[in-house]
Structure formats: C-alpha cells, structure tokens
Design brief:
alpha+beta; six-stranded antiparallel β-sheet; five-stranded antiparallel β-sheet; 16 helices; HATPase_dom; iron-sulfur
Length: 567
C-alpha cells in the first residue's frame, strides 16, 4: 500500500502555548471591547446589566466550542501520526521477515540487548519468552568461534576496524548449531567519540556455508583420487622441495613421504646429468606454464637409475599466483612390456581430470544459483523496502541510517551478483554459448573500455554441454589474460562450427611476449586450464605471440548439436 510521508509536528509545549495565547487574546479583546460597545449602545443600567449577563454566557459557550475544536484537532493529528508510525513499523517488520533478517540493538554498558521477534525465531525460541543479554549471547556462541567473535566486536568498538561483520555459529533452542552472519554499526557516541549504541542484524547463512563445505568435500575426494592413482605423484613448493607424495611415487623411488618432506628433488631424485634440463622445466612451471612435459633420468633411494616420463603442473592460489607444483611420474625404464599400462594410465588420468572439472562446474553452478536465487532475491526485497522507508523517514538521523543501509545493501547485492556470475553465468545453461559470450564480451568491454569484437555466434545453436562449457571458459580465460597483462586496444573473438568441429580464435593487439622465454610473464597464467580443457574435450590448443605483435589463442573442439535444441 502507498504510504504518506510523516510530517514533523510541533512540540507539545509550543502547541499548548499557542492555544493559550490565542485564547488569552480572544478573551482580552472580547472583555475590553464588548463592555465599551454595550456602554455606548445602552444607557439604562438595568438593561446594561442584563446584556452583560447574556454577553458572559455567550462568551462561555463560544470559547468552550473553540477550545473543543482546537483540542479535537490536536488529538486527531496525534492519532493520525500514531497510525502512520504503526504503518511504518509494520512495513519495517515485513522487510525483515521477507529477508529473514533479525535486528538487535545494544546499548553499551547495559546487560540487556533489544532484539526483534525474528531473532528469537531464528534461534528456535518463542518470541514472548526470549530475552537476550550479552552473557546469553556469549554463552550461545560455539566454543570454537567464541573468542574470535568477541574479539571482532571489541576491535570494532575500540576503533581498530572500520566495519563490523562477523560469521560464527550459535546454539539453537534444540541444541544444534547454525552459522549466522552478524553486521552492525555504531549510531550513537558520547562527546569524546566513544560508542554508546550499536544496531545490527543477524542473517542465517547456514545453507551457504554448507555449500562451501560440500565444495571442500569435493576437493577432498579429488585428493583421494590422487592418493589412489597408480601414477607417481609429488607436490612441491616452487623451489621443488617436497611437500608430500602419494604411495605410487614412494614405490617408484623407494622413499617414504616423511623421508622426502622438506628435501629438494635436486638432492634426491635428479642426477647431475639431468639438472640443467630440469631447471628449465622448473622455470616454466614457476611462470605458470602448464605444458611442462619431459623425460629424464632419475635416481632411486637404492642408487638405481631409471628413466621417467614427467607431467608437471603449477598450482595457483585464489589470486592466480603459483604457490606449489604437482608432478606425476611414470617409470618407463621397462617400456617394452609397459606400453599398454602407460596407455591405461593416460586414459585413467584423462578420465579423472574430466570428472574433476565436471564436479567443479556442477558445484559452481549450484552455488551460483543459491547465491542469485535465494540471497539475491531476499536482499533485493530489503533494498525495495528500505527505499520506501527512506522516502518516508521523518528525522535526519533515521534518514541517514536508512541511506547508509541502502548503500550497504546495494554493495552487497552487487558483490553477490558478481560472485554468482563469476562462478557460472546462468545464461550459459539457459540460452547457450552464443548469448553467453555476447553478454560476457559486452560486459568486459563496458568495464574496461577495450573494444571487444565477437563474430560467428549467429549461426551456432545449442551444443552439447561439455563443448559449451569448455569453449566459454577458454574464451573467458583468454580475454582475462589479455586485459590483465597485454594492455590491448582491441580484442577479437571469432567462432566457427564446421563438420562437428568448433574453432575458437581469440587475438589481441597488445604488447605480446616470448612464449619460449625462460620465465614467461604473467600472460602465461591461465594457459594450464585452457590447454587442459581443450585436450580433455578431445580437441587441440595453440598459442602464438611475439613481443610487440600481440597474442592469439586457437582452440578446436569437437561439438555436436544438443538434441531438441533450436538452431
């Protein structure tokens, strides 16, 4: 329903003074001038006395009527204001209920904490019996989260952090624990700037935390696959000091994982004759080059020399920096009887990598949908109601707090939308490769100011899901690499589908680099994923670049039309 703005009314003291002054002015004027008029009009004392009596009665009735009207107007205004305040409170409660937010209000130095009914319901309590205190909140925190949660709130109050937001588990009424996100802001301070009052919200994020936990479990399963892999596998730091190795690796070289931990492969596995070749491979891995495949001689624990085929891959952190290396070794010393085993190992490795990528895309898609469909819609509802409240807020303090809440909400919605789209754009699943690439290229061009030309998508309909995913990720990584490292003025993205083969070409006019250089620049980051996706899809991958002459990426992927899809 539409709401009218709450107009500021006069203070009660001022209103009462106005009524009193009006009454005094009317009374004084009536008494003075009515007697003078009667004295001029009537000369007979008896008639004058009688008229003064009627004049007094008229004055009493008229002033009574006037006072009644003024009091009635005052009470009507007060009642209208109370009704509008009740409407605003109802709208605010609807906003909190729609987004499942709970409100808390803490006056520092007081033990009690005011909370909305939603807080009690979040925790599984009846609102009419739930009473929040600082001590009860501390006792409700999960033992593993208690000290950190208290420290974050204390740091905010003491000015060591500019914003307060914390995630922790709280005990429910039934004894179980759920994850909550708490955020708040100081709204009152004393003359010395010390906080007096903090207002904040609770948001139940248990389902989102569980989604991240499922992703972690997927990664643990991938680790288990590596442990069970019949191919020797070792993880090292960027200096090739061993972190750990799998049982197959221990069997090949005769070392236990504990014996190799912290030791360099140059001191244990690599003979002097292969050191120079291996150092070149290490430099390429440090630069993020995935294509670090080599064959060289190695030494076992008992001194035997064996010939191994190595497949090396850099491991990156969230910022794309190479932090560790993973190397897989196959003993090919007795290759005359092991060609079939080698082929089987290659096949199992490819199947494992494909399955891992599929699991990753599924988890990304699931998490993206949860972020967009659940949290995004709920926050949008809050934003809508906050806009309505802001237009109708009466006080400057209330309006400022609502404006600040809207700013926080807009930033949160934008970040959640960006995170969901980064995980997996829904347009790729709903409309296919062509519209998804058009949306992505347009968005990148608008954000960066670089001209991105997309061609060849008009005649491409829906393709099988693996081909669409691989093609989109290759284009995405290529464009990101160009924008991040090459400083181009133009990027061209072209697609062509011929005889079941999808050809992707991404080229830029940036400063380029030397692919054969020792330590490649940052443009090599991302090549691992692109090459792996293309090869696992049964296709090919090619990269070309030269300093000052730009870079191109060429990928060919087998692709078939999706059954029942429109062309």
């Amino acid at each position: 329903m539409p709401y009218r703005s709450l107009r500021a009314s006069a203070p009660p003291g001022r209103l009462a003074l106005s009524i009193a002054l009006i009454y005094a002015a009317l009374s004084t004027g009536w008494i003075i001038y009515s007697d003078r008029l009667l004295a001029v009009w009537l000369r007979d004392p008896v008639q004058l006395t009688e008229m003064q009596t009627w004049k007094g009665l008229f004055f009493v009735f008229s002033t009574t009527l006037l006072v009644w009207a003024m009091i009635r107007y005052g009470f009507a205004s007060l009642w209208s204001l109370q009704q509008r305040l009740a409407d605003r409170e109802a709208a605010f409660r609807v906003a909190l209920h729609a987004t499942r937010l709970g409100l808390w209000d803490y006056r520092i130095g007081h033990g009690a904490v005011d909370t909305s009914e939603a807080v009690a319901r979040m925790l599984g309590h009846a609102p009419e019996t739930f009473r929040e205190t600082v001590g009860a909140w501390v006792e409700r925190l999960h033992p593993e989260d208690r000290e950190l949660a208290r420290a974050r709130f204390r740091n905010y109050l003491e000015g060591r952090t500019r914003e307060y937001a914390s995630e922790y588990r709280m005990r429910m009424a039934d004894g179980s624990y759920r994850w909550f996100r708490s955020a708040g802001e100081v709204i009152e301070r004393d003359p010395q700037g010390r906080p007096l009052r903090v207002i904040g919200t609770y948001l139940d994020i248990h389902e989102q935390v569980e989604s991240f936990r499922r992703i972690a479990e997927s990664e643990a399963r991938a680790r288990l696959y590596l442990e069970r892999m019949p191919i020797g596998c070792v993880i090292t730091d960027t200096d090739w000091k061993v972190v750990e190795c799998n049982p197959a690796f221990q069997q090949i070289f005769g070392y236990s994982s504990e014996e190799l931990a912290g030791r360099s492969v140059f001191d244990t596995l690599i003979p002097d004759s292969a050191r120079a070749q291996t150092e070149v491979v290490l430099e390429r891995l440090r630069a993020g080059n995935f294509d670090a495949h080599n064959v060289n001689e190695n030494i076992t624990r008992d001194g035997r020399r064996i010939l191994c085929e190595w497949f090396n891959t850099p491991i990156r952190d969230a910022n794309g920096e190479v932090t560790q290396l993973i190397a897989m070794a196959i003993d090919i010393s007795a290759r005359d009887g092991g060609e079939r085993a080698l082929a089987d190992s290659h096949r199992r490795l490819s199947e494992l990598s494909a399955r891992l990528m599929q699991i990753q895309e599924e988890e990304r898609g699931r998490l993206a949908r949860e972020l967009h469909d659940e949290i995004g819609q709920q926050l949008a509802a809050v934003q809508f109601n906050l806009h309505a409240l802001a237009h109708e807020a009466s006080g400057d303090g209330s309006r400022a707090r609502l404006d600040d809440c809207m700013g926080i909400m807009e930033t949160t919605i934008r970040r959640i939308r960006d995170r969901a789209l980064d995980l997996r754009p829904s347009m790729l699943d709903d409309l296919g490769l062509g519209p998804a690439l058009a949306w992505y290229c347009q968005g990148q061009a608008e954000r960066t100011g670089v001209k991105i030309v997309l061609s060849g998508v008009e005649g491409i309909g829906r393709l099988d899901e693996p081909a669409e995913t691989a093609a989109f990720r290759i284009v995405q990584e290529s464009v990101n690499n160009a924008l991040r490292h090459a400083q181009p003025a133009r990027i061209g993205v072209s697609l062509q589908l011929t005889d079941g083969v999808l050809t992707l070409r991404i080229e830029d006019d940036g400063h380029g680099f030397d692919p054969g250089g020792g330590r490649a620049p940052g443009a090599h980051l991302g090549l691992a994923g692109m090459r792996e996706r293309a090869e696992l899809a049964g296709g090919s991958f090619e990269l070309g670049s030269a300093p000052g002459r730009g870079t191109y990426v060429l990928a060919r992927l087998p692709a078939t039309g999706r059954s029942g899809a429109a062309g």
